[in-house]
Design brief:
The chain is of the alpha/beta class. It is 46% helix and 8% strand. InterPro entries: CMIP, LRR_dom_sf, PH_CMIP.
Amino acid sequence: MENDEVCDRVIGTLDFQQCDMSYIDETPLASPTSLQESTTIQVTEPSGSPSTSLQEDIDSQESSSSRTSIQQALEEVINNPLLQEPESPSPYNCKKENNFVPIKKANRDLPIVLNLKRNTSQNEYMQRRNSLGEILSPITGEDIIIPSSLHHRDNLLSHSDPNLMAEGATSSCSSLPLKACIATPRHAKRKLKLLEDGEVQVCCIPQHRKLLHKILTSKYLRRWETHHLILTDSAIISKKMFGYMKNPLPYSAIEDVSYVLTLGSSERSVICLSIFKDMSYLLRTGSAYLGDQWCYSLNWKRKIFKSREILRSTSRSEVILREVKKMADEALHSQLQDHCVRQIPLDVVSHLFEEKNKLLSAELQRSVLYIVAPLMQNLIPSRDVCLFFSTFCHENPRSEVIRDIFTPLVSHILKHTVDFTKTCHMRNFIQDYIWSLYCQNNGRMAVKDFVESMHGESSCCPHPRVLPNLVSVSLAALYACFSDEVLSESDLESRLDCHLAALESMISFFDWRKVMAQILQPLPFPEKALRSDLFIKRFSGIIYEIARDSRCEVHQLLLGVRDEKESWLDLYRPSTLCDAILEDQDVWVVMLEALFCCCFRRKSFVQKLVKHLWILELLAVRESHVVQEILCCMLEWDLVSEDESVMQIVTALQSTSSGKAQYALLVEKKSYLAELQKKGGPRKLTLPSQSTDTDVAKLLSGGSLGNLECLSLAFTNVTGDCAEYLIRLPSLRYLNLWSTRFCDTGLQLIAEHLMKLQVLNLCETPVTDKGLRCLVSLAGLKKLNLNSTALSLGTYEYLKDNLPELEEIDIRYTDAWSELAPASRAWPRMT
């Protein structure tokens, strides 16, 4: 009898059949009066049996004394700050009209108020009460099942008032501790990780009707088994199939997921899985947090399984939209914050359209994409989702979905993807997205607008990964255009125009140009593309932008990675003697001008152009000033040995007025050089310490210095600019530049022209490895002083291996000297 009273107090007249596991009503209680009007209240008297029907409860409230007692109890409930309704919805699918009103039990006489839907008959109620009694039998006050339709798991009393817990611990069986049924707010919405597997204790409880079976399955005779459970897409399985879990437990067989609160221990949590065939499985975890994870994860898996099965078995548009909407809402509002929660509904939708693509209309696909669009925020799509999006782009290139939904997703991928070689499916999706933009009205401008939006309005793009990813996408698309699959000429031209428009937009940004030039320097295109006139013609605009950049580190990248490698300068030079020979002459001349007039006015660079002499002569006739200057340098430095070739150069220069002026300056300079290099003059010369580049120029133009073999500029203020005067001394063998500001540029000129140099002192000069590596062209160099320079160990080894006549080298106080082992520093020093 005592157990029956307990069950009556807790269960009341709860309608188990109509609990569909929705949400707890969050509507606040306005007043005691309004609560009486909107709910049915069951009052548990201090002594005696509880009310047995709804009508008896209503009749008992007609007396003024009972009404006053109820009003006082309700006022105490409403005014208690600890007993507020939970702020976040429960995930356990209680109907919104069902409420669980928390009550603080100040003493035993306070009634328990449950705001529940009471439309269950007395017989059904007694059956459900007896069924609950079977699971709990014998009830001892230590545990109780709270159905998911009543319980809000995030509001357990274990985080409530400690005084209330202490009082509940001493309660008798006739008056259960309110820890079993009172819920108070714990904290804000909790974030949980989706569980795929874990170790729990499992107990199986058959729902028998006979007394003997009830006793055998009572609490104290239960047998718990430890299993490592795995939550698959369709069932719960055990890693080792034995005992209760020797067979998989499909989600379709689970009727409900609820909690069993163990009152004796607050550190454990028990979950009840109700099975259709009069069976219940209890899962016991080590903590309440793990219990939350298992409960939310099980419910999530069940709902996704149900939606997936419905979508597989139907082709009706309204059913598909309803189920997709249900999955999207669950993913957006679930307390599970794992990335799989948003990814799984997208995978289900992608599989649906892959299987039923021909049966589903374009309008239905568009509606589904708009429904799942919120799931794509800050999400990296899987392979299946990318394939689905790519297919949609191919089949509906002019759909508004492309810009409305795919643009934020593509932007997120470009900003956060590190390596497309591991995620080729995302790169292919972005290629198809860009092609869809090109297929729309004014497609070329749409592609450029997209690239500009990725860069942003500031002068420097704040996302370092955007440019490498965009270039990777465009290069892969251009490579695919020239793959084994043969495209028609019109399709090839359209594809080239699409992706070259993206590259042109990228190269137009100042902060992106250097990185793009570095990526394009090794000619990262198939051989078929580099021999295609259409590709070379369309790509010339990008090369032109690189050549027009004033930064040396940018336009230098037009040359090859190494001397023997083909470069853009080689690729764009005119190649045939015909009327159309110089279609690309403007680009080639612009590249020559950028290199020769800035940082490659050097003998080695001009010497490489001698083999293209006939092209230079033709361009000189067409009044290209930079080409005329290059031809004059060839004559000045005696790079052309054949008399016939020299006469052709002179004829080409004198054919135009600008060429005649250039040739006149050359004749004047040659006569001066002849006068300067006449035999005579001093053999040794030392300049004062305050000498500058201007002083060196005046001194070397004052008379014959053909016999000058030793020149000392130590401790002067000369720089690398004086190198153009030093190279006019053909007999120079000894050059001292100690403690000057002589730089790499001047060192490169000296290495190309003073071939008789044997002794060179660069102590305490700002030269670096870039200039020092050019010294290998001075094959007769015997003594070299690099004390206190920026010499590295690699350059030191390179010079030592490539200067066969080198006898002495001073590398003290350099990086190379500090890295060498003490035993290896026995090189002779220059004195």
